[in-house]
Every structure is written in structure tokens, then in C-alpha cells.
Amino acid sequence: MNPVAGAPLTVNGRSYPRPGRPVVVVCIDGSEDAYHERAIADGLMPFTEAMLARGADLRGECTMPSFTNPNNLSIATGVPPAVHGICGNYFFDPATGEEVMMNAPELLRAPTVFAAFSQAGAKVAVITAKDKLRRLLGSGLAEGGICFSAEKADQLSIAENGIEKVLESTGFELPSVYSAELSELVMAAGCDVLERDRPDLMYLSLTDYIQHKHAPGSPVANRFYAMLDRYFARIDALGAILVVTADHGMNAKSDAAGDAQVVFLQDWFDERTGPGASRVILPITDPYTVHHGALGSYATVHLPAGADRSALLSELAGVDGVDTVLTREEASERFELPADRIGDLVVIAERNTALGTTPARHDISGFTEPLRSHGGLTEQRVPVLVNRGVELPAGHRLRNFDAYWIGCHLAAEKPLTK
Amino acid sequence: MNPVAGAPLTVNGRSYPRPGRPVVVVCIDGSEDAYHERAIADGLMPFTEAMLARGADLRGECTMPSFTNPNNLSIATGVPPAVHGICGNYFFDPATGEEVMMNAPELLRAPTVFAAFSQAGAKVAVITAKDKLRRLLGSGLAEGGICFSAEKADQLSIAENGIEKVLESTGFELPSVYSAELSELVMAAGCDVLERDRPDLMYLSLTDYIQHKHAPGSPVANRFYAMLDRYFARIDALGAILVVTADHGMNAKSDAAGDAQVVFLQDWFDERTGPGASRVILPITDPYTVHHGALGSYATVHLPAGADRSALLSELAGVDGVDTVLTREEASERFELPADRIGDLVVIAERNTALGTTPARHDISGFTEPLRSHGGLTEQRVPVLVNRGVELPAGHRLRNFDAYWIGCHLAAEKPLTK
Question: In a mutagenesis test of the A interface, which of B173, B191, B228 is the best target, namely the one with the most A β-carbons within 10 Å?
């Protein structure tokens, strides 16, 4: 891509100038802002500390539900789930009675910025920790685009991923999918690709394995952020615009004693609408549940015909630990969600409470640390850290999915305008 | 310990001046010298490269057999196995017909330098990767001495280990015993202890998991040595004398196609002295065999009464892949081994050959890389790298177990004398 020539690209109604240098967005999964703040305070992120002094140290909002897939796709498309359609890890289709995993590109309703730029001739590289996001984020990439997951870094091919031999080039053995090293491999591979291929756009999306287990300022969390700091420094030294954000925050979902606090919604609805008549969907559920037991702070509920929705809403809103209950219409408007992929009710828990179905379906007996999770409004604030100063338009509501909009403007040295 | 006052300590007949600054010996398990040489050539060990330019870049010999336990105990005691008694991971006691694991302190026949110094009031810290060495190396430590393994870093107590909460202080989750991270935890914990407690003597003993799987200059090996380089720099910056050595080297035990080359000795002797009459002992065997399949290049054989030892010796010496066969008497003299803990014959394989018992007892079918191992004379040369210049006495035969003798002299600013 000729970095200077050409009009800005318009993707999903937003304008992206063609960048004059690489734009690298790092999505630190589950990066509640206290994580980097504590690591900086403890002297473990010297590069980031200096970067924030000269760059931009902002906070923005993630999209609801504050889960991984909706937010990664929002960052990739620049728009909320109402537009791109991905509102969780899966949804329930009442017409067929089936639960549908939302990791197939067919379910994506909007092009990504990556697809648009790569089809316009730009070099694009997308690296994820877990493979579940790879197909969605790589959807529509032109030939030559790089897209792979660290989880499957031992199975890469030029034809499928645009790159191969990543373990060899980085010197990693294939990490466990439940490890900090999975994220480190994303960072190491990203730096290698940045140095060698100098892509116009790069996206590095990590896993929240550490954040689900370790609180901000804890030794393991601090060590993870110290590791990230070294890679941020390398990205900066390679001349890229760096935007660091998160897909969602993270909070303890436990009481002061460390015991999980969970409202079991399926049991609650079964008592009121009959066994199994209502269908409680926990869109955090995915094939990787070891670190959160499928417990988050967001649920959506499909009610049986004839149920008294407003009465149920009112009663549920008064349950201890429940923060907000909205109708489908209210939720889709307030949170910009696709109305056809949520239930009749949307339920959001309070900061330290998670939502479950029934106890038997959430085994956290093997947890050695208190439950930490996300999904609610209390995990909506995320960092937006940039290695350049950022002047937002007056009144701009900053979102994590502004990352490429900010990055492309900075890389083209153009002011940010609505 | 008063660093200046006091006469030198004599341990096992060797004189160790009292050090005026910490002496840190790092034993990189299986560190064939090509590992650090290749990593330096690839620009991945900038500190070590500079250290060797101003310090000492030496090569010495390890003790035979070139295995982990004998050499770690030689480094710890300053003397060969003939004196300290540990000549492998286990030995066969013909009197009882039992195989005896050599990880119990009762089997150690000489005090360690650590025990002698700690009993004289010095601060000593010993950190190993695997737990198998911990009890031997910690034998005789006075109260307050620090001794623990990374493998059991989640089970430490002040009473047992002289330290606790190592995972918390370093920010590690407990690593797999088969990982590079197990060694990294040793280095990280060692640096923390050095900074906080400033021990007079410290010993950091790693695992050869990486070296058994990855050749010098390979990406994974290079990344491992790049990691070590960062910790060496930190040890040096903390003002310690640093001596880096190895317990043994490492070579491929395979042909050009990558297939393991193994002489199966039990089968060979069974054909000649009758089934099970001879007893082939492979002292590399230990509870951790995943990475070498219990295949090394050294074996010792107990023959039945009446066997024609010299005829068997002559015939075996002519077998393809066998380098040297010695009688018990020859081996104990040449290699300074305890004659009562070896068999009637000692067998050493050539560089690219390993010795086994019978195929069924060595499962390497799951190996994804060609077999790499050690035990022979071809793995006897090891690096001796020091962050100060070293002037050895004329004609001195440098051994890895000179490490503390060198380190204590340098730390006391005394010339090395025999």
C-alpha cells in the first residue's frame, strides 16, 4: 500500500486515513486498568511509564456484554455488536431451539478494518492467543494477509495463515492454552512480523488467563505486565503507532472470604416459569472454561410464551447481587446489541457477583484462587494507552473500538475528526 | 560471616579463602559449550559476550560419568565421585540385589563446601531446578541456610528450606518439571535471594530439559540462553563473583536421519552369560525420563560369578558404537569413581550412540525431536565462564568442580594456588 497516496478508507461508516507507518493495536484481554497502574507503580513497566508521560493515558468503554468476542470484533470493525452481530461466544436461536457458537465468519455482519485495508492493498497481520477468534478476525483478508493463533502455532501454513514456522522464528515451544506464555508468544511473533514485514495494520490479541486468576498488583500479574512492557518498548522502537487497550475489565466475583458469589438464574426462572421453560444463556461459555467456570456477570434469558416479562423483570431486579435487568428492546438500544441474538431479558450482575444457571453446571471446586470474571457494566472501563499524544474531538465518547481510528489518524498525522 | 577475618576453610583437602563478596556458581545442566557460543554469535547474549571479553572464557572437564548427580555433587564438594560417593542416579548393590537411588544424604561420603561454610557462619543459598538434587546438596547446611527446588517451590517453609513464598516474590506460577521455566524460576529466585540476603555462597543448578530436545543454535535453545544472559547480567550488577559452568555436555545420539542409535547391552550380555545373569545398570535412569528415555552413553555391568570378564570386555569393545570398556579397577582409577558402587565393567559409547538395556524398556516413540543425551567422554568438556580474569596455576587441569575454589579466591582477591 502506498502510505501517502489514496483517499481515506471508509469502513462501516467511519473514515480511516491510510497510515504512513505501522499501526499496532494490542488488546490485553481482561486488562482492568489497575493491572498496568499497579505494575507501573511497582516500577515494573518502565517503558510504559515513560510512554504515558509523553503519549496518551486514556480510559474508554468497552462494548457490552464485556466479553472477549464482542469486543474483539468491535475493535476489528470499529462498530458495536448491533452492527457486527457478535454479541457473545454463542447465542440461542429460538426458531431452531439450537445454541449457535459465534466463531464462524458467516455470523459476522460487517467487514473488519483488516479486510477493508488488505483488499485495498495494505499489509495486515492479525495474531490471537486462542484459536476461537482467529476465523472471525481473519474474515475477508486478502491473499497474503497474516492471521494465526498462538494456540495453533505448530500448524501454520502460508496458504492458510500467510506465515509459517513461527515457533522456529520466536524460539518458543508450543505453550499451553492456559498459560501466560500463550500471550507472550503473540507479542514475540508480532514483534518479529513487525520487524520483518512492516505491516500497515497489526492486531495482537492476548488471553486473560492471568487476569482471571491473579489480581492487579499480585506478583504473577505484575510479572505478566513487566513482560508486556518489554514488547511494547520493541514495538515503539520499530517506529509503529502503538495503541494498547482491552476487551474488558476484570473483577473478583467473590465475597470478602474469597467464596464465589453467584446468582443461579436457571433455578430462579424454573421456580417461576416451570422447569426448563425459560432458557438462560451465559454467553461467556466457550470451550475454554477452566479459568472462569463459565461464570460471568451477564446473562440473557428467553422466556416461554405467555410469561409475564415485566413482572419477572421487576422481581429479578430486586434479587441480591443483580444490578440491572433490561428488556430485549432496552438492552439492544442501550448497549447497541443485535436484538435477534439476545433473549427477552438481559441480566447484569453487580461488581462482585456472577450469574450462573444451576450449581451443577459450574464446577469451580478445583479453583485455587477466588473467582475473577467479567461481563457486566463494572468491567466496562478499559485503558486506551497510546505512544503519541491524542486530541479527541470535543464530547467524543471514547471506546476501545476507536483504536484503529485513533491509530490510523496518528500514523497519517491527521487530526481526529468525527 | 566476617568476610575478611578468619583463615581459609579447608574442605575435602582443598583450601577456600573466605569470600569478600558473594560467589554465585550457576550450573547450566547439559550446557555443551556450543550452546552459549552459538547464542553469542547470534547476538542473543550481549552481557555474556562482554563478560567473556573482560573475564575468563575457559573450558574444563566434568567428572565421569557425565551425568547430573555426580557432577553436581562434585561441584558442591570440590572433589570427584571417588571421594563423595555419588556416581550416578542410582547404583546396584550386589550384596542385597537391590537398586539404590543415590538421592539420600546418607549416601554422600564427603561434606559439601556449602555445609562447611554455613557451619562456619557463612550465609549459603542452594537452589535447584528438580527436587532430586535438593536433599543431597542441602546435606549438612546449618540452620538458616537456604535450600529448595523450583519443582517444589509451592511447598516451602522456613523450617525446611530457610525461605518461603518464592513463587510470590518472583511472580511465577509453579512451572512444569519439563519446562524451560523451571530453570528460569531458579535464576529469578536466585537473583532475588542475592539482592535481599547477599549470601556468601550461592549455587543455582538448572535442568537440561531444553538441551535434551534442542541443539545449539536452534531457536528454542537460543531463546533459553538469551533468558540466562539477562540473569547473569543481574548477578554481575549485584556485585557477585559469577562462575558459570555445566554438569555435562550434550550430543545427538542419533544417525544422520535422526533415528536413535542405541546399543542394547542387557540383550548383548543375556546372549553371552544367560538371561538376566548379568545386570546392566544405566545410572542416568531417574524418575524424570520423559526427555531422554533413560538412554545415556554410560553403563556399568555386574557379571555373574565365573563369567570371563576379559573376554567379554574385548568382545564388547569391538561392538559398533561402543567407545571404551574398562574393568572396575581401571574405571575407578581413571575416572576417580567409588569402586564399590560400580559394576565389574564400565561401558562408554561413542559420541552419537547411547546405551540401553533392551528395547522394550526405552520408550522414545513419543519423541518429536531426535534423541540427545550424555554420559560419555564426548560430553566431558564443559564451559567455565567467569566475570573476572582467572590465572590458573601452571599445569592445572581445570574441572567444573573447581568452580567454588576459583570463585572464593577471586572473591577474596587471592591468587589461585594449588
Answer: B173
Cα Rg of chain A, angstroms: 21
Task: Give burial (CB, 10 Å; 0-12/13-18/19+) of A392.
Answer: middle
DSSP state of B250: -
Those residues of chain A that have pLDDT short of 50 are 1-4
Between strands A322-327 and A345-349, the pairing is antiparallel
Instruction: Choose among A169, A221, A224: nearest Cβ to B219.
Output: A169
Determine the Cα–Cα distance for residues B61 and A58; give it in Å rounded to an integer: 58
**φ, ψ for residue B300 (rounded to 5)?**
-135, 145
Q: How many CB pairs under 8 A join A and B?
A: 37
Terminal-residue alpha carbon distance, chain A: 25
B240-278 pLDDT per residue, tens: 999 999 999 999 999 988 899 999 999 999 999 999 999
What is the chain B residue with the closest CA to A213?
B173
Strand partners, A301: A280, A345
Single-letter residue type at B259:
D
pLDDT score, position A4: 45
CA nearest neighbour of B385 among B44, B47, B21: B47
Distance of CA A406 to the CA centre of its chain: 18
Over the stretch B389-415, which tens digit does the pLDDT of each residue have? Answer: 999 999 999 999 999 999 999 999 999
Domain B262-373 has CATH 3.20.20.210: no
Residue A35 identity: Y
Name residue B350's amino acid.
E
Please state, in angstroms and rounded to a whole number, the distance separating the CA atoms of residues B119 and B96.
35
Residues of chain B with CATH 3.40.720.10: 9-250+380-411
Distance from CA of A163 to the nearest CA of B (A): 17
* Residue A226 C-alpha, separation from nearest chain B C-alpha, in angstroms: 10
Is the Cβ pair B220, A180 closer than 8 Å? no
Top-confidence residue, B377 or B418: B377
Dist CA A403 CA A386 (whole Å): 9
Give the distance between the most distant pair of CA atoms in chain B.
64
- Residue B59 CA to residue B38 CA, distance in Å, equals 15
Neighbours of B93 (CB within 10 A): 13
- Closest chain B CA to residue A44: B171
Phi, psi of B54 (to 5 degrees): -105, -20
Q: Specify the domain boundaries for CATH 3.30.1360.110 within chain B.
A: 262-373
Contact between A222 and B168 using a beta-carbon 8 Å cutoff:
no
Distance from C-alpha of A179 to C-alpha of A185, rounded to nearest angstrom: 10
Q: How confident is the model at residue B369 (pLDDT cuts 50, 70, 90)?
A: confident
Residue of B nearest to A172 (CA): B220
Cα(B33)–Cα(B379) distance, rounded to whole angstroms? Answer: 10
Q: What CATH architecture applies to the domain A9-250+376-411?
A: 3-Layer(aba) Sandwich (3.40)
* B223 CA: distance to closest CA in chain A (Å): 6
pLDDT (average), residues B37-56: 98
Distance (Å, whole) CA A138 – CA A103: 11
Residues of A in contact with B221 (CB under 8 A): 171
Smallest Cα distance from A180 to chain B, Å: 9
What pLDDT is attached to residue A288? 65
Q: Mean pLDDT of all residues in chain B?
A: 95
Q: A218 to chain B: which residues are within 8 Å by CB?
A: 171
Q: Which of A173, A219, A221 sits opposite B220 (nearest CB)?
A: A173
Cβ-defined contact of B219 to A167 (cutoff 8 Å): yes
Q: Tell whether domain B9-250+380-411 is in CATH 3.40.720.10.
A: yes
* ipTM score assigned to the predicted complex: 0.80
Q: What is the mean pLDDT of residues B45-56?
A: 98
Q: How many Å is the maximal CA-CA distance in chain A?
A: 64
Domain(s) of CATH 3.40.720.10: residues in chain A: 9-250+376-411
